[in-house]
Amino acid sequence: MAAAADTRLGASLERDALLRRFIQTQAFCFTLSAVLHLINGQHAYEFDLLYSVLIGTVMWAIIDLSRLVAPLDPDSGWHKGLLGIAIVPLGIVGGFLIGSKIGDAITGQSTWDMPSADLRLVLSVTLLAGLAASLFFYFSGRTARQQMRIESAQRTAAEAQLRLLETQLEPHMLFNTLANLRVLINLDPCRAQQMLDRLIAYLRATLGASRATAHPLSAEFERLDDYLQLMAIRMGERLHYTLELPAELRGVNIPPLLLQPLVENAIKHGLEPCEECGGIRVSASLESGGLRLEVADTGVGMSESASHRVASGGGFGLVHVRERLAKAYGGRASVNLANETPHGTRITLRLPLEETIDLQPSPAALPAQPATAVS
User: Fold this and answer.
1) Cα(8)–Cα(300) distance, rounded to whole angstroms?
2) How confident is the model at residue 370 (pLDDT cuts 50, 70, 90)?
3) CA-to-CA distance for 169 and 78, rounded, in angstroms?
4) Could you give the CA distance from residue 311 to residue 319 in angstroms, rounded to a whole number?
5) Is the distance from CB of 96 to CB of 126 less than 8 angstroms?
């Protein structure tokens, strides 16, 4: 199967590169005609150019167009077996004979009537130019395929790292929730039962879904709503939250579970240490052609030392968010932290909008207005 996939991939590359090699062939022809005219200027430059273009084009057609129907070596994109050896002399001889015949028909002259010294010069230059062009295309094609394989391996490695990060995030959330549930069992068994029921429903919705490298913002906000309802059972009136997702952004794709570790951080480090009621607001918006995601809380905020530690990449949730954004978007995404006024913390993610993203409303998405739950 791998060999068949490589063959299909090589054929696709050849079709994409066909026009580029044709243009490069014409550049060779123009250069060769200028060289011939400088060496032997018995004819006008237009005469040498005509024969050079005709011979080169026929040579290109024999060698290059045959790649569309012949089996190719996936490592080089060149013809396999004996055809790969024979195609160059066949192309050179055929290009010279057919191209010269067409040129003779246009000019009314005969290539074979020229002096023997001139004919030997033309044949020698044609042979050397054909070999040089063939070697150029062979090695450039081989290099392009090697580069493509390297990029493919890098993408595969990045996807594997993203999957690993996702598998680390889910147990982290689960362990935190189970620890909270253990405490609540002793304090309020009834609420603990409600929390356990909500946890089962949440895990069924999250873990039952097939894994993917991206999912729409509507799904991300639905999972946040489930999680925050779960936390609201434990925290009661100390927690209220708002989810703001505009209709036009429902179908925008992002890496799964991207915002949840930030919400977990906001609860653990912002709201839980605060004795008064606190709120969390998660929002999505467009900003300068990109996507802006915010997680803001009205908790205790960050001290100067904590702010420096978190901004430099500390903390489980932020470390994973930064790494996942780096793997998914490279340097095109950013994470910024700031203290809210009068107190609290705001984390802002800025992501690029991919060309394949669907910005049309999804029937299964969240309502256009903010979804608010208070417990």
Assistant:
1) 58
2) very low
3) 46
4) 10
5) yes
Over residues 221-238, the pLDDT tens digits come to: 988 888 888 888 777 788
Per domain, the residue ranges of the chain are: 2-154, 188-374
pLDDT score recorded for residue 165: 52
- Rounded to the nearest 10 degrees, how much is the dihedral formed by the CA atoms of 47, 50, 55, 57? 170
Give residue 73's pLDDT: 76
- Length of the chain equals 375
pLDDT in the model for residue 160: 64
Per-residue pLDDT for 295 more than 90? Answer: yes
pLDDT in tens, 149-180: 777 776 666 666 556 555 554 566 677 778 77
Asked which of 123-137, 243-257, 284-298 is least confident by mean pLDDT, the reply is: 123-137
Residue 368 has pLDDT above 50, yes or no: no
Beta strands at 334-339 and 239-244: parallel, antiparallel or unpaired: unpaired
**HEC per residue, the chain:** CHHHHHHHHHHHHHHHHHHHHHHHHHHHHHHHHHHHHHHCCCCCHHHHHHHHHHHHHHHHHHHHHHHHCCCECCCCCCECHHHHHHHHHHHHHHHHHHHHHHHHHHHCCCHHHCCHHHHHHHHHHHHHHHHHHHHHHHHHHHHHHHHHHHHHHHHHHHHHHHHHHHHHHHHHHHHHHHHHHHHHHHHCHHHHHHHHHHHHHHHHHHHCCCCCCCEEHHHHHHHHHHHHHHHHHHHHHHEEEEEECCHHHCCCEECCCCCHHHHHHHHHHHHCCCCCCEEEEEEEEEECCEEEEEEEECCCCCCHHHHHHHHCCCCHHHHHHHHHHHHHHHHHCEEEEEECCCCCEEEEEEEECCCCCCCCCCCCCCCCCCEEEEC
pTM more than 0.90? no
Structure tokens at 180: 């909270």
CB atoms near residue 54 (< 10 Å):
21
Report pLDDT for 237.
Answer: 80
The yes/no answer on whether domain 188-374 falls in CATH 3.30.565.10 is yes
HSE, CB side, 13 Å, CA atoms: give it for residue 66: 16
Structural contact between residues 269 and 282, judged by C-beta atoms closer than 8 angstroms:
no
